[in-house]
Amino acid sequence: MTPSCDLIVALDVPNSSAIGPIVDSLPEELRFYKVGLELFCAEGPAALAPLVARNARVFLDLKLHDIPNTVARAVRTAARHQVDLITVHASGGRDMLQAAANAAREFGDQRPRLVAVTTLTSLDGKDLTDLGIQRDLKSQALALTTLAVEAGIDGVVTSVHEVRTLREAFGSSLILVTPGIRMPSDDLGDQKRAATPEAAVRAGSTYLVVGRAILAADDPHAAARRILADMKGPMI
Known about the structure:
16% strand; eight-stranded parallel beta barrel; alpha/beta; 8 strands
């Protein structure tokens, strides 16, 4: 049976004034949106307001990576803004990950889920070598996911090429967020490890993150519909 998978639209825009028109132009079943570094650095928590006002779910993608106390305090602050998912860097280490997880648990049933970034989809094997990492991409993803899970993190952000390995290793409860999603005709941009929506769903992703393939399209609504249809391919 194909696992359930949802689409998250990445709002990679310079200011929050663009959010309303974008959300209103997309299919109404899309209810999950990502706010990343560009938008959050421009306006801070105020950038979340248009989404909260529309009762949308929020994925706050700041890739927190600092000393444990600083990251824990950032998670607490973010949780107060009604966000659903928050990213941290798995490479921040066990103590940092545990501090983040403990901070999130303080919010009980209303807590945000934390997902740890394993290896950015803009990196490939050569980049890992340049960073002094001797493991291959799948081994690196498996090692960092193991660390994150042991520290109490809910899931990871990883490319589709590692999803099946992680799903088999950690089971159905692990949240797997997959960026680098492109339709076959799309430009890859700075993504080195991209995949189609159907391939990601087949592999076992929980959430697909799509930005420019929708926002930069001539018709964003139609582009989103194509992606949603492609995601349903394995279930036909």
